[in-house]
Amino acid sequence: MIRGVTLVGSGSATPCQRVSNDQLGLRVETNDAWIKSRTGIRVRRVVGPEESLADLAKQAGLSAIHMAGWDPESIDLVLLATSTPDDLFGSAPKVQAKLGANRAVAFDLTAACSGFLFALVTAAQFLRSGAMQRVLVIGADQLSRWVDWDDRRSCVLFGDGAGAVALQATSSDIDGLIGFCLKSDGARGDCLNLPQLVEHMPLVDGTTYQRGGFSPIQMNGQEVYKFAVREVPSILEQLLRTQNIEAGQLDWLLLHQANQRILDGVANRFNIPTSKVLSNLADYGNTSAATIPLMLDEAVRDGRVKSGDLIASSGFGAGLSWGAALFRWHGPN
Ligand code: UT7
Q1: Percent with pLDDT over 90 in the chain
Q2: Spatial separation of the C-alpha atoms in residues 164 and 120, rounded to whole Å
């Protein structure tokens, strides 16, 4: 029997260190007016010496679990969407241990800024199939460790953070994940990379090995911008059409927080008023896989998003990858 999925808890966590636009202007040739007008960002958070990605993910996960009223031992899967793990072998098991989710299996999922949405949809498959009852989906990234802090064209955009959602299997008549659509196009991936640092080192007897390592983020901002303003409206349109839902029926538009101009452009395309477009970009910048659950949690906790609200969400970024999901926030029972 195909079953339903409900979103019953949310949580988030951000690092303590704040870096303002003016402060960035002390390092690279930029200024508050340029960054605010071109991106909408005022300040971003950066992981400091006493913090880690796993700790942020744990805090976000714990608050989602608390909201849901779950015992950590009751969780079947901890799915961590991240492109910046503390350990390349995966950080999810570390987070699982920190949460005390001792029964759960845990693994990472990498899809850059689309990671949370891809993880949400992946988690839903385990619940729908009946294989699992409770999944904690966490989106967490620490892009600050891979940003070129001397490249003003990219460093002003990014920040660190984590967000989480508690997903519960239900009967199919109260299904909260109404529809989704996911896409990738590796042929266009060169405009946003965190590429391998290619270094061939001598091994033995004339053989070599490639030493591990990565170069900082490389981005062609204009190309990524064009990709986002073309593909995000298109995938949302496709999703709404497939589900037979009008843009006017949406309570909220919850997009990956990359640039306020992208958010405004997409909202305009669907005639969605600014009051229905969730944005906290000014305070956090682009936190990659964390933006969507970080924004959702803020809006749930301040009472904007209410039980039953219909939300259209879209994530997009490196890969290239992009996706959209239509869901209803349920909240704790
Ligand atoms: O999850 C996805 C992650 N990536 C994105 O979302 C990136 C999407 N792209 C964007 O958000 C925008 O393309 C940016 C915000 C990155 C750049 O905005 P833009 O309006 O496309 O600016 P631009 O690249 O066309 O640059 C305009 C000017 C250039 O100067 P000239 O050549 O016209 O003299 C840049 O050198 O602005 C200059 N510029 C800056 N000036 C001050 C570029 N970065 C900065 C800066 N401060 N930080």
Answers
A1: 97
A2: 10
